[in-house]
Amino acid sequence: MKKLIIALAASAALLGGFSTGAQAQEKKKVCFIYVGSKTDGGWTQAHDRGRIELEKALGDKIETPFLESVPEGPDAERAIERMARSGCAIVYTTSFGFMDATVKVAAKFPDVKFEHATGFKAGPNLATYNSRFYEGRYIQGQIAAKMSKKGVAGYIASFPIPEVVMGINAFELGAKSVNPDFKLKVVWANTWFDPGKEADAAKALVDQGVDILTQHTDTTAPMQVAAERGIFAFGQASDMIAAGPKTQLTAIVDTWGAYYIKRTKALLDGSWKSEQIWDGLKDGILTMAPYTNMPDDVKAMAEETEAKIKSGELHPFTGPINKQDGSEWLKAGEKAEDGVLLGMNFYIQGVDDKLPK
Amino acid sequence: MRIELQKRARVSTLFSVLSPLLALVLTLIGGAILFWALGKNPGSALYSFFIEPLLEVWSLHELAVKAAPLILIAVGLSICYRSNNWNIGAEGQFTIGAITGSILPVLYPEWHSPMILPLMLLMGIAGGALYAGIPALLKTRFNTNEILTSLMLVYIAQLFLDWLVRGPWRDPQGYNFPQTKSFQIEAVLPEMLASGRAHWGFAFAIIAAVALWFMMRFMLKGFEVQVLGQSERAGRFAGFSARRMVWFSMLVSGGLAGLAGISEVSGSIGHVQPSISPGYGFTAIIVAFLGRLNPLGIIASGLVLALTYLGGEAAQLSIGISDKVSRVFQGLLLFFVLSCDTLIHYRIRLIFAGSQAEAKG
Amino acid sequence: MFEAILLTVITAATPLVIAALGELVTERAGVLNLGVEGMMIMGAVCAFAATQMTGSPYIGIVAGIVGGGLFSLLFGFLTLTLVANQVATGLALTILGLGISGQLGESFVGQPGIKLQPIVIPLLSDIPFFGRVLFAQDLTFYLSIALVIGINWFLFKSRRGLKLRAIGDNHGSAHALGINVIRTRYLAVLFGGACAGLAGAQLSLVYTPQWVENMSAGRGWIALALVVFASWRPWRVLAGGYLFGAVTIGQLHAQAFGIGIPSQVLSALPYVATIVVLIIISHNRRTTLINTPASLGKAFVPDR
Fold first, then answer.
1. Is A200's Cβ below 8 Å from some Cβ in C?
2. Which ranges does the record mark as transmembrane (chain B) (predicted)?
């Protein structure tokens, strides 16, 4: 008994002794909230790469605390509020599911800046940012149509949200610009992150005769399946060439760092404004991994398309485009409005799947 | 060296109180070693975990927000486990309760009546209870093991929610993103105090815990739960029906999980979305046992577990401990608490080869 | 194509079957270890790490088994020596396992793994149709089949198996008969952990040769459900695992085929199928009762 009390007292003293208060901060705090773990190998890791780049670029002026594996829902609101209270100058909330929580906390802390990724609700101190992933998907579609012998690609999708639907359509558009009869088979894995299930979906698609795979899920499992079955595939979120040195044609690499540096500089020099930003290839928020495992003419085509998109000469969603049922969506020469793209919930012609309504 | 247990003649009142404290001390020591090994200052890490979240009013509110669903679900589960019904599907009942409770605000967003909130809560309870009724029906009618059915129904409920918010319940003004319209103000469970986010869900949790404690302690039904849990045969001799107990315990726990679900959606989130629970239904199983299946104990264990979540976050932010390390620390804490509870019923003897020495007793 | 689908189903079902078989033995001894998910993920990370460091997936398999086994001893110590509550300890083990594996595996994320290659059995693998499916598989598949046969023999044909079942049915009487309850249970827990570890190794070396956090993604829970589904009989574990795997893969094919049913409905099919089949096979109360270990989850302390 006596020992116990001593132990208790000792630990209490230990606690008291070390409990130093917050030290004075001179560097500005640029804070990040992650939905996954920073080593998830996918979405969150891409944001964390961006954070590390930011710290490399501006590390003498800022520090970059972060919270990982924050569940969407009430926990998010608490985590964001904790950030705001801990003296962050700006908080990046890096998942769509943090939208309403960010809106609520932003209203409570008008002096703190917030930026929410992939959402659509903004405010005086709340900006939104997103990446035009569809530009990369269009290029991938073109490459797929050139490289596929059967004219059918398989698409492993996560959840039917506009972002994913837009990606599927952009891929098909790119493919059809090369081969008008190109078909796309879609399997919904109903997960962002389950290597086993992604591999199963990939195998199912290959067994049904596709000879190119692309994915909108996070792990390299589909790339590994493609490598094993001797077909080509595209990487997602990071350069996945290590998982398929002879398989990956290219990958859409999320390079959020460019964006974070740009915005943080604006914050430091006082020019930060609340905006709804949708950056693309030209801004460096996404980049294409090296074009590999393809003949030179295909590579040249891909590079040309990339250059055209960067210069603004080519917008992937330019008419004439018909919806899946054959009805007209965009007239010849007409470009899709951003608002329509961001809320996209229909397929274009050629996608061999029914969209859950 | 060998460890031997010796049953105490009586339950040790001293150790019922002391064992959590002992567990805390062991956790502090274990945690200090863990953090030191990772090159972090053990003092400030432990401070962030256990003290920092308790120092500010807003943070106390957050503690209540986090603990409310855990307590609410766990007290219901304690009735199940006491009566030997293995409902491990509270997560699914929580989800269905959230869905059925949200029917009114989602389908009638223009209905501004004070009646809407009570109706929502009732429908949430009914939804959770009915969903728990499925394993109850299958167990009583077809003799199907409830561990399996209740678990499988969790996945089905989550997929149903997913389908709803991506399909028929999607907010038409929300760019086709998977969430419903925000609830009208009358459909939002209000906050208890102006000083923070804690809503009436926490009060429901405390009321439910006290009510079930009263039932277990002073009412015949409580006795029935315990007798049937000990032995179905003995229960039959006393005239209790095991079949009816399956229904009773499953409906109570399902109803409470459903209430937790609608309280969470209405009070903390304000709309329905694909992810409404970070596994509350499963964490509540631990909370139930940590509270020794005693409703009042569950209030304490629910708060402690909620504290470790908040503390993990605080530690991440203040000294950069990764969320994985806070999971490990949480596991350590649970292990120490669970094993120290042994002292309530048993004396522990350490037996060394040759000589015998008594350690703590 | 049918052969390819069968191969996919086998790969998906094997980890479930192996982990469930281990848990079956643990539960037959009267111990309920809900920490399968945690032991599995520990096995996966140990197997992957050992393979990356040595270059040999066979060493990885051993490391997975050892990792899962050692981790299960922690559960054993708490629940058997200190008689802590089994349900809560098992869940805590899962929390701990997810945390530790994430920490251990941090540096391995993104590294391409080394796949455990199939062992092609000459002649037998040339049998038309079934040859390649059954006799050109990797070690884990052969082990899963050997485990089914071995455990079935052990439980129902051997003396030690009889003792183990006796402990699971009534530890008090087993103890009175002079059987060492605690030691047997320790071995059963260790076996369960080793099997879960092997299942984890299959995930990170065969199913998807890579390491990412939480890569078990709930498969430990499905394995637990399978034990109940099988009413604690090894052959039914095999059947249940393949049924679950077949419906899972089947729904993906249905999607790729484009049948236009919401994917959530299709994704729910494996769970619905499991419930429905369990209802059909468990209507006979007596056979279910005979096979259910009566002292499952109850603490045992020998009185001396």
1. yes
2. 12-38, 58-80, 92-109, 115-138, 147-165, 198-216, 245-262, 282-307, 328-348
Residue A237 DSSP SS3: strand
Chain C residue numbers with beta carbons less than 8 Å from the beta carbon of B156 are 268, 271-272
Q: What does the pLDDT look like over B102-157, one tens digit per residue?
A: 999 999 999 999 999 999 999 999 999 999 999 999 999 988 889 889 999 999 99
**Enclosing domain of residue C102:** 2-111+131-220
- A70 and A203 in a single domain? The answer is no
Residue A72 placed within a domain: yes
Q: What is the pLDDT of residues C6-65, one digit of tens each?
A: 999 999 999 999 999 999 999 999 999 999 999 999 999 999 999 999 999 999 999 999
Q: Contact at 8 Å (CB) between A189 and A157? A: yes
* CATH number of the domain encompassing residue A336: 3.40.50.2300
Q: Does A201 touch chain C (CB under 8 A)?
A: yes
Secondary structure class of A277 (helix, strand, coil) = strand
Q: Which residues of B touch C72 (CB under 8 A)?
A: none
Nearest CA in chain C to B292: C85
In a domain, B169, yes or no: yes
Question: Which structure tokens are listed for B276?
Answer: 């409404």
User: Among A101, A131, A161, where does a domain finish?
Assistant: A131
Q: Answer with the one of A131, A156, A178 that is the final residue of a domain.
A: A131
* Predicted complex ipTM: 0.90
Among chain A residues, CA nearest to C267? A190
pTM of the predicted model as reported, rounded to 2 decimal places: 0.91
The number of folded domains in chain B is 1
Helix runs in chain A, H state only:
2-18, 43-58, 74-85, 99-108, 133-147, 162-178, 195-207, 221-229, 256-268, 296-311, 338-342
Please give the residue range of the domain that contains residue B228: 62-289
How far A232 CA lies from chain B's nearest CA (Å)? Answer: 32
Chain C environment of A224 (Cβ under 8 Å): 112, 208-210
Distance CA B276, CA B222 (A): 32
**Interface contact A83, partner B, CB < 8 A:** yes
**A159 and A115 in a common domain:** no
Query: Nearest-CA distance from A351 to chain B in Å?
Result: 19
